[in-house]
Specification:
It comes from Alkalicoccobacillus porphyridii. Keywords: Transferase. This is Glycosyltransferase. By secondary structure, this protein is α/β, with parallel strands linked by helices. The protein has four domains: 8-223, Spore Coat Polysaccharide Biosynthesis Protein SpsA, Chain A, CATH 3.90.550; 229-308; 539-693, Rossmann fold, CATH 3.40.50.11820; 700-883, CDP-glycerol glycerophosphotransferase, C-terminal domain (Rossmann fold), CATH 3.40.50.12580. The chain is 31% helix and 22% strand. Helix 8 packs antiparallel against helix 9 (256-267), helix 8 runs parallel beside helix 10 and helix 23 packs parallel to helix 27. The protein is globular and about 85 Å long.
Length: 902
């Protein structure tokens, strides 16, 4: 009889993981349950080409009773795991990946759970948490709200798919089942379906976790999968269809649990915005296979998918029912007119099962902008529905039955896709109605008409619209004479004279609404609202708020305010917003009027402001409210002037779109940048976008020295490597996994390169590290013994003007440096934060310095530039001259003139 000495056997395939392997093994050795007493580790070398074998041999010699090391010809992860299974003797088996790791208490916690529930289940799963290139829980984390047993016949949408984070009874659960040799994708899920379906139950334990490495370089099998042909057609035939047919034969139907696992895997092959290149020659076969798979998937399972949007779900349902590729020209479903008992007509959308899935009277319109601008009522929004668009109209009608038509336009950034093809385009509309025409109406309605049938539309207001969806009694003021709100019950805008009595009546209704909804501090919010409304009725001066970063000034907002203060305008009061703890706060007190960030005075002035002039445009940065912003948004009447932190070179329209940011002035510095915004998907026009240059460029005069020579190292940040901004500390918390990233390793390697350090010192150069503000919390990770760390309080303009050479990656700071015609190098070992080739700027054809991709090339290029006294070549000087329309110190003047036109 087989001796079962260990509680756990962990099978670990090894291939090309020398950088991570020790961390994975050590996480087992350090288990609190006791590694030597309870854990067997089986290392299976799948003919790894790196130094992994030496690591395996060292550990197996150190723990000969616990660690088995074996090697095989390269046959893939499935065969490697199967090899390990044959050597396993533990009661439970696990398949920890060699680039991941367990928490130290994982096996102890798992064993405690199995001791309590082991007779009822063969499998227990723990949460999978990303680290390194991505942070946070896996998207299937929702099943881990509590530790419990899940019955998959009752909860078929709670499934397990990853073998590394599951622990399986080796004889009862795994038994004779094995991983499918040669299956490149979905091998874990395929095996786990069969194991879970034995008892139709499994356990979830939420008191420990599996740490799953998302490699920054994108070198894991999963990360590079979408570029592989095997990810598609072979995956459909060898796994999805095979598994569906197996269970259909076993039961006469496919259990919902199996359907959910298959549909979860399928959805990722469907939702892409671009058709994968590897699929283009076989698209017809691809769609044919999808339709074959969908015949086994119930529609409620399709609609229940969490990562398909509403339109994708219904397009997939249509494909299932029609057994053909979704055709956007034919729409989703049929329509049917319904006459109700009161004589009103409604247009119903009926699916293939004769179920109502949408209707005209229930359809709301999304409103992105709703404001008074230049004497016009402006309403900008879009229609999203399953209703046919061919005969769809949106218009506004007033009490006199006069009709106002909008300008219609598409919303390309909101398009919905299946396998690279557009399946839905939102119908956009923009109304600009002279307020003089409608001011004597008591109400106006937005009408949605489809196939000749009309209905008043309810409106849903987005964060960028001044009316609030969370505060139904909110209202905006026109010309200090009229108040406009939206009545969701009657589905209409209501217009009233803006008398003190009407104002107080509406404000008391708002207070009552907040009290009913149990809004915290509703009394204080109400008092503040009434005070702001009262002051605005009698305000004499314009109020302009300037802001750079929360904790640092010294960017274009400070430069511009310094210029404006010099003009001594009497009708404007200027304030600079900054955290009181910032060193710049004390500095600015001598000549500015700084206001503490998120102080009561900041909030007060924010609601009274006529202009918000900022280099930042994210609401969580520039607006001072935390959790209460929806109760004040209708009070905000400022015009937003976006100064930018730098020059836009990539397509950032997903972030900087007009119907979200609503800038009244969008400052640009280069003709190509200007053209990319006005001609792109940002929805801004030449009315808002102006070519002026950044105010901070006024400071850029070369003060570099031939005595105190400086090499500036200024990389930008990587959003996925650091923690989210915390409102609690007004900063980003430290990330434990940052130092494991390729980004950190590359820059830390360069900052400590002995060749660079030696040559720089010998030739009188100082190496200065200027980290991006978003990674300053990670400075403790870097070895900075051989470099000077630029003080956070030192101005960028001071740093840049003193620099002789700039080394960066994708930071737009190189535009400032190029402005002074000084040399630079681009270190492109990765692709940065965004798709850096999607914009107008080509580093190869337009960059102001050489591009290097390796550490060795970077070192060599630095030495070459130092040998040539850090002079920008003629080639790059000409590029600078062609790029900038202005290279003077009059940028603040040009920006101020545009602000005064608003």
């Amino acid at each position: 009889m087989e001796q079962q000495r260990f509680l756990f056997s962990v099978v670990m395939p090894v291939y090309n993981v020398e950088d991570y392997l020790e961390e994975a093994i050590n996480s087992l050795i350090n288990q609190t349950i006791g590694f030597e007493e309870h854990v067997q580790l089986i290392l299976v070398n799948d003919e790894s080409p790196d130094n992994s074998e030496a690591i395996c041999e060292r550990y197996s010699k150190q723990y000969p009773q616990n660690i088995i090391y074996t090697k095989q010809k390269n046959q893939g992860v499935s065969v490697a795991r199967n090899t390990g299974i044959e050597l396993a003797t533990g009661t439970y088996i696990n398949f920890l990946d060699s680039d991941d790791y367990f928490d130290e208490d994982t096996l102890e916690k798992v064993w405690g759970f199995l001791n309590e529930h082991g007779e009822d289940i063969d499998v227990v799963a723990i949460p999978l948490i990303y680290f390194e290139g991505k942070q946070g829980p896996h998207m299937l984390h929702y099943k881990f709200k509590e530790s419990r047993i899940i019955d998959v016949t009752l909860e078929p949408d709670k499934f397990v798919m990853q073998s590394g984070s599951t622990f399986i009874h080796r004889t009862e659960g795994l038994g004779d089942l094995r991983f499918t040799p040669g299956q490149k994708f979905g091998e874990d899920a395929s095996l786990l379906i069969d194991i879970v379906m034995k008892k139709k139950r499994y356990g979830v334990l939420n008191t420990t976790k599996y740490n799953y490495r998302a490699r920054v370089a994108g070198t894991s099998a999963l990360q590079s999968s979408k570029e592989s042909y095997d990810y598609y057609l072979p995956f459909f035939g060898k796994y999805l269809l095979t598994k569906l047919e197996k269970y259909n034969q076993l039961y006469g139907y496919v259990p919902k649990y199996v359907q959910n696992v298959i549909m979860y895997d399928l959805q990722w092959r469907l939702r892409s915005k671009e058709t994968p290149e590897v699929l283009k020659p076989d698209l017809d076969e691809f769609y044919s296979k999808i339709i074959d798979i969908l015949q086994y998937i119930d529609e409620d399972v399709i609609v229940g998918q969490r990562y398909l949007n509403w339109y994708q779900k219904h397009a997939v349902c249509t494909m299932k029912q029609t057994k053909g590729k979704f055709d956007v020209r034919k729409g989703f479903y049929s329509t049917k007119v319904l006459n109700n008992s009161e004589g009103f007509k409604d247009l119903m959308v009926i699916d293939h099962n004769d179920q109502v899935v949408d209707s005209l009277t229930q359809r709301h319109l999304n409103i992105d902008l709703c404001e008074i601008e230049e004497g016009n009522l402006k309403v900008v929004g879009r229609v999203g529905s399953l209703l046919p668009q061919e005969n769809m109209k949106v218009f506004i009608t007033d009490s006199n039955n006069e009709i106002y038509l909008p300008q219609e336009f598409p919303f390309p950034l909101e398009n919905r896709f299946l396998v690279g093809e557009v399946i839905y385009t939102f119908k956009g509309f923009e109304f600009e109605i002279p307020f003089e025409k409608i001011k004597n109406n008591t109400s106006i309605q937005v009408i949605l008409e489809v196939e000749g049938i009309q209905s008043r539309a309810d409106l849903k207001f987005s964060p960028s619209a001044r009316l609030s969806h969370q505060l139904t009694n909110s209202y905006i003021v026109a010309n200090n004479q009229y108040m406009i709100g939206f009545n969701h019950t009657n589905k209409q805008f209501e217009i009233l004279p803006y008398t003190y009595q009407n104002m107080m009546k509406r404000e008391l209704a708002i207070k009552k609404e907040m009290k009913k909804n149990k809004i915290k501090n509703y009394n204080k919010i109400s008092r503040t609202r009434i005070l702001i409304r009262t002051i605005k009725r009698n305000k004499k001066h314009s109020i302009h708020l300037y802001m750079d970063r929360i904790d640092k000034a010294d960017d274009s907002a400070e430069v511009l305010m310094r210029y404006v203060n010099g003009l001594k305008e009497t009708n404007v009061k200027n304030y600079f917003i900054l955290d009181k703890q910032s060193p710049d706060f004390t500095r600015l007190q001598k000549e500015f009027n700084p206001i503490g960030y998120k102080t009561a005075k900041h909030k007060f002035l924010f609601l009274l402001a006529d202009k918000l002039i900022s280099t930042h445009c994210d609401r969580f940065i520039y607006q001072p409210f935390t959790g209460t912003e929806n109760y004040f948004k209708d009070l905000k009447e400022y015009k937003f002037v976006f100064l930018q932190h730098g020059i836009i070179k990539d397509d950032m329209s997903n972030w900087l779109k007009r119907y979200d940011k609503n800038f009244k002035l969008f400052v640009t510095s280069a003709k190509l940048e200007y053209d990319s915004i006005v001609g792109g998907n940002y929805s801004f026009t030449d009315k808002q976008v102006k070519l002026t240059g950044l105010p901070r460029f006024d400071r850029l005069t070369d003060t570099s020295s031939s005595v105190k020579k400086k090499i500036l190292v200024m990389p930008t940040w990587r959003q996925h490597l650091i923690n989210e901004f915390s409102n609690k500390i007004n900063a980003r918390p430290y990330s434990e996994t940052f130092k494991e990233s390729d980004y950190f390793k590359r820059w830390n390697q360069f900052l400590n390169d002995p060749t660079v350090i030696s040559y720089a010192r010998a030739n009188g150069y100082e190496l200065v590290f200027v980290p991006h503000p978003s990674i300053r919390q990670q400075l403790v990770d870097f070895n900075l013994e051989n470099v000077t760390l630029a003080p956070y309080e030192e101005s960028y303009s001071s740093i840049l003007t003193k620099g002789n050479l700039l080394i960066t990656d994708y930071s737009s700071v190189y535009f400032d440096f190029a402005y002074m015609k000084k040399p630079m190098l681009y270190y492109h070992f990765d692709t940065g934060n965004w798709d850096n080739e999607s914009g107008y700027f080509s580093y190869d054809e337009m960059g102001f310095g050489d591009i290097v991709t390796s550490h060795e090339a970077l070192v060599s290029s630095v030495i070459h530039l130092l040998e040539n006294d850090c002079l920008m070549s003629q080639k790059y000087q000409e590029r600078v001259e062609n790029f900038y329309p202005y290279t003077d110190q009059n940028n603040s003047e040009r920006v101020h003139k545009e602000i005064m036109k608003l």
